[in-house]
Design goal:
This protein has about 500 residues and is of the alpha+beta class. The chain has a domain of about 100 residues. About 20% of the residues lie in helices and about 45% in strands. The protein contains eleven helices and 25 strands. The chain has a 25-stranded antiparallel β-sheet that branches. A hairpin with a 2-residue loop joins β1 and β2. α5 runs antiparallel to α7, α8 packs antiparallel against α9 and α10 runs antiparallel to α11.
Length: about 500
Amino acid sequence: MNRVLPFAFLLALSAPAFGQTVDSQGAKQLSQDLSRYVGKQALDKGILKVSVEGGAYKIVFDFKALAGSLPDRKLLKFDVPPYALIVKPRSDGSWDVSMDFSQSASFEFNGPEGLQSTQFSIKDGKGSGVYDPNLAAFTSATSSMAGMTMASKDAKQHMDVSAGAGTATIAATKSATGGVDFTTSQKVSDFVEAINFDDPESGMKFPVTVRSPELSVEASGTGVRTRPLLDLLAFAVANEDEATLKANQAQLKSLLLAALPLWGHVEGTYGFKDFAVESPVGNFGATQLSTAFGSDGVAQNGKITYAIKASGLSVPQQLLPSWSVALLPTDIDLNFGGANIDLDSMAKKAIEAFDLNQDPPLSSDFGDQLKADFMAKTPKVVIGHSSVKNKDVEIALEGEMTFPGEKPEASVTVDVTGFDKIVEGLQTAAKSEPEVAQYVPVALMAKGFGKTLPDGRIEWVVNAKADGSVVVNGVMVKPADPAVDDSVDDGDGGGGDSGNDSGGAGAKLNP
């Protein structure tokens, strides 16, 4: 109950409205609907209250009452004002939702590093939207704030975060494949995060400040199973004690299967403009910096993707040898992830096999069986087309890795534009810095293995086999690892082995 309560305003509207009359009876019914997802105790202890206000319902969450109901007494101070939202039924069965989340709050607790404290405030925070209980999602919603601050402190670290004006939107529609398709967008201005590491034990002091005039988040998803996930939540609330849960595990299995694949595909991007990091060793920065992710749901042939992109990179040059400055990248575009990921079979087998009446619920060898089945589908680690470049040089690569027999096997293609510039830079640097000279023959040897393409790029196609062999552009640069004889020699000379290896069976260990 405690973990899901912040989301209860969505769940309270689980029944279609259809323009119902707003009155005390409706407030009572709304409370009963809500108790299905947060538990009756939340209402009995005053953690959540529903009342009539004008032509709408007011739902209030009392966080102090919540903190008082927790068995863990590590909280030393808890000053968080109640949170309220206004909901009003619409004639189409959906609900109008509005909220004012402006507030200032603070709390202290005993953490692993001793006393920890946090204070935060949100200025002029407002939100509104339309919630569809049939979809269990906002079909449209917007929010905004004038600014926010947060300060957190423990014995070894102080952190201060602030941001200026921000906006956010979300929209959802019924998915053709079941569930909900959604998009969301958020922008925050003048983001600043100052972290001061101050460890009295080691004497280390290291302040770091991260800045960006604009932080943005974009995300979307298809086929998110919102309604089955709510059904699972209701089941968890109704089966809190162990005996009831065990008795109803057949229903639990049915609900888990109904929630698969959780979603069809979700993806998002987190980006900064004019990103800067200020530190005692100098300033780091990028005119654009973003990370992106994508993930299929629980599928038979799923994919996961990650990307890190940066342009206009800068680093403190005093930290680097002077000869390396010309080789520093100004732009990076890294893409990697996985493919052929069969989570569907794993999930369904686990759901079918577990038994809460046994300890453990899954047999001791089940994990090994699941791993073997998973690897049999040949999952891949994938390097999408990635590049690191500056004005003179660009290094690009892509490839994939599999694990036949649990040993890695990889195929990677590397292309370099401006390879001669790298060699020239090393040769020039070697004249004044002799230690650089050792890299020159290595670079020339690498070029010798390369293939020059019509556009001048040099390419290396590297194939590494599970047997340990490595081939570059069709040339064997490392043979297979020697086979190991796993037979036992008792040293008695039996078998007539006279020292030559021309006879007998089995692999021989090369000297």
